[in-house]
């Protein structure tokens, strides 16, 4: 633990944000091995972040009133979302004129390059919806009713407030919150045994997945269980086996990496798509360099901002 943070959680965030960058390196005519890697990453990389949020925000909800919690999550999530969306809209106005400006980012997905920002308002809404669980005595009945509502809610891709995303990912936030409470009560002494069993089970499930023709999406029960299984295994691996310091540092600036990585990746995708460099090996090298810079550049910027312009950290949700 460093500075009151749990290193294994930051490490899981670090791995997750690297997988996000790899998953967004979707250049045209990508090799077949990348398609398989992409499918594997998209099984669990976003559920991992929602699960971790359920764990960490549980601490905040236990020691803060709703007003304080609401302001904290708004500064942490909505402010970066609005700043990044407005920057994107300004870029569209510069390129296409004032007619290109739109307020759609306030209630639906931004267009083209900014579509990845959906995670921030979805997580904000999930955090607020799950807040009452800490304060209700019938906390195990409330989640059942809540989950029933969101799972039965019709799937509309453009609901106001990203309600559809909240419906899909709220269960992971709740499971993360329950898991944290279970461990904090001293009931997590058998966690290493659970880790061993989950690792074995994940190996069997992944083998079945990789060698079968499953059409898995986050909306199916099978994919939900598989995503939860992969998430727990990643978390346990960093908690009980090995937690590299470099990946912990990446996790500590995951928000800034999330906001900047598409712009950093774009030149490397462009090089491949324009056939300046071709072949599977070239694609792999460009992806590794692009993903590495997507992690290193934001880390350096965060250190600079923290030293000279600490107030700017509010704009991208840093602690």
TrEMBL record:
Keywords: Acyltransferase, Membrane, Transferase, Transmembrane, Transmembrane helix. The keyword Transmembrane helix applies. GO terms for molecular function: acyltransferase activity. This is Acyltransferase family protein. The keyword Transferase applies. Residues 7-296 form the Acyltransferase domain. PANTHER family: MEMBRANE-BOUND ACYLTRANSFERASE YKRP-RELATED. InterPro entries: Acyl_transf_3_dom, Nod_factor_acetyltransferase. Signal peptide: none annotated. Coiled coil: none annotated. The chain crosses the membrane at residues 12-34, 40-60, 81-103, 115-133, 140-156, 194-211, 223-243, 250-268, 280-301.
């Amino acid at each position: 633990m460093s500075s009151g943070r749990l290193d294994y959680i930051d490490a899981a965030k670090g791995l997750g944000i690297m997988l996000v960058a790899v998953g967004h390196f979707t250049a045209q005519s990508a090799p077949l091995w990348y398609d398989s890697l992409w499918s594997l990453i998209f099984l669990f990389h976003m559920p991992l972040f929602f699960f971790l949020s359920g764990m960490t925000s549980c601490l905040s909800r236990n020691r803060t009133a709703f007003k304080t919690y609401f302001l904290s999550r708004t500064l942490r999530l909505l402010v970066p979302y609005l700043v990044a969306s407005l920057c994107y809209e300004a870029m569209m106005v510069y390129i296409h004129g004032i007619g290109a400006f739109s307020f759609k980012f306030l209630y639906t997905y931004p267009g083209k390059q900014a579509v990845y920002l959906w995670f921030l308002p979805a997580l904000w809404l999930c955090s607020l919806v799950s807040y009452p669980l800490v304060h209700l005595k019938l906390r195990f009945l409330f989640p059942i009713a809540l989950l029933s509502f969101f799972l039965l809610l019709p799937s509309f891709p453009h609901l106001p407030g990203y309600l559809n995303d909240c419906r899909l990912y709220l269960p992971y936030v709740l499971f993360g919150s329950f898991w944290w409470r279970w461990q904090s009560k001293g009931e997590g002494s058998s966690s290493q045994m659970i880790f061993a069993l989950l690792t074995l089970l994940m190996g069997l499930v992944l083998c079945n997945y990789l060698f079968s023709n499953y059409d898995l999406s986050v909306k199916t029960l099978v994919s939900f269980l598989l995503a939860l299984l992969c998430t727990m295994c990643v978390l346990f691996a960093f908690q009980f086996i090995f937690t590299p310091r470099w990946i912990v540092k990446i996790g500590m600036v995951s928000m800034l990496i999330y906001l900047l990585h598409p712009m950093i990746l774009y030149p490397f995708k462009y090089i491949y798509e324009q056939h300046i460099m071709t072949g599977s090996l070239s694609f792999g090298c460009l992806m590794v360099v692009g993903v590495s810079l997507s992690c290193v550049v934001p880390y350096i910027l965060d250190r600079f901002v923290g030293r000279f312009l600490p107030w700017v950290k509010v704009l991208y949700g840093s602690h």
